[in-house]
Every structure is written in C-alpha cells, then in structure tokens.
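Lab channel / #folding
Pinned by the channel admin:
"Please post every new chain as: sequence first, then the structure tokens as a reply. Keep commentary short and put observations after the output so the thread stays searchable."

First post following the new format, from NK:
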Amino acid sequence: MEFKEVLKKDLDKKEIAIGSRSGRNGIYKIDLNNISSVVITGETGAGKSVLIRQMLKQFDDNYTFEELSYVIIDTSGVELLEYKDNNKTLLSAYNDLDESQELLFKVSEEIDRRKHDILLEYSEISIDDYNENNKKNIPYLVVVVDDNQSLLNKEDVSSMVNKIIDKLDVRLNVFFILATNNVYNEMFENYKDKANNIRIAFDHAEPEAADLAGMPFAEDLELKKILIYDVNGFKEFNRFDLIEDNI
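Reply from TO:
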C-alpha cells in the first residue's frame, strides 16, 4: 500500500498507521489511547527512520501547533533534519550525544511534572481531562530517539531511557519512539514485559540479538515486510511504500 493512500484513510486522531496486510482490517494502527511507546529495531539502512517520518507525518496532519510538541533526538544528524525547523519541534539534538542525554533528562522531568504537578495536584484522571476541565492546553508530547551512533551504549543513557519507559502512562499524553540497531542493550530485556508498548522489527543480523530484544529472528524477512509485536503476539505486515512528496 502506498503511504499517500494511508493518509486518505478515515483514522481516529489518536490512531497512527504503521503497516498493512490483506483483509478487511488490513491496516495496523497504533492506538494512542492504549500505547505509550514503540521500539523499532533493525540494521542500519533497514528503514527505521523512514517509518518514523511516516509516523510524524500523521502526527503533523492530526494535531495543530497548539496541540502537539516534538522532542527530536537524531544522532545521525541527517535522518530527521527536516524537523529541526518544524514549528511543532520544542527541543531537538542532532549529532550530539551529550545534548541528546540532556534532552532525555528534560523529558523525564516533564513526565514527572505531568504526573505529580498536574494530575495528582489537581486530582485529574488524564491530561485530556485536565485540559478540558481547566481550559488549559498541555500539548501532546511526542519524543523521538533515532539512534545511529550507539547512544544507548552509554550506561547512564540506557538507564534514563529505561526510567522514561517505566514512567510512561497513556494518561500523560507522552508518546515515546525509539529506533536503534543496538538490540544487544540490556534495556530490551525489561521492555519485553511492558504491556503499553509495541515493538517493530525490520531485520536482525544474529539470532541472539533478536532473542535479547524479545523479537523473532528476522534475518530472512522480506525487504518490504516488518514484524510487529503487541499483546497479541507477533504478526507480519507490509511496509508502506515511500512517497517522498507526502513525507
């Protein structure tokens, strides 16, 4: 399926399409009401950044400037460069591991602020409820970490990412996207057991890496296929064709 066809679908505001397959329910959609993070694994050049850009395009279309903010961490410095000047980008770091680490710390602080200073302080169920009941506009926060320089190899960084994922709650309106080829990192061992996440595999060079990430061995996965893991297990989907004019 071409990506431009996906954009024509009548999806809910909190649904992000990431893959397709034949049948009546052919599009796999991330339901942001139930999912707060996604980890994308695969070799360099497999298409992880392309998928991120397709996801961000849908966020761009679904939310206004007032409703959404991005935090973009792109360790390659080029894959998500077009979002550096995006009016929804609140903070960004490109090709700077130290600055990337600092942004992750700020994200962790913002999650704490939303939980403790807003929801608990005002006895609200969710950020959506807080916004509606108090005529406020705390924006949906989409955090993207596209790691091509082994950012996760830094022990304090992987620990920070673990803490962020542990604290994520769909009620906080924070969505975390992590793309990496570093599937050996021990953080994936903890990530496997979290219910509010989705894992996407493009390919893996070695079975041991796939096993550690809690992913099936995908060495023979066809070029235009991805494996998606959720609470229902693993399923194979087609990747959307890249249409540059729409991304």
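NK: Strands lie at 15-20, 27-31, 37-41, 68-74, 89-94, 140-147, 174-180, 197-201, 225-230, 233-238.
TO: also worth noting, Helices lie at 3-6, 48-62, 97-122, 127-134, 155-167, 187-191, 207-212.
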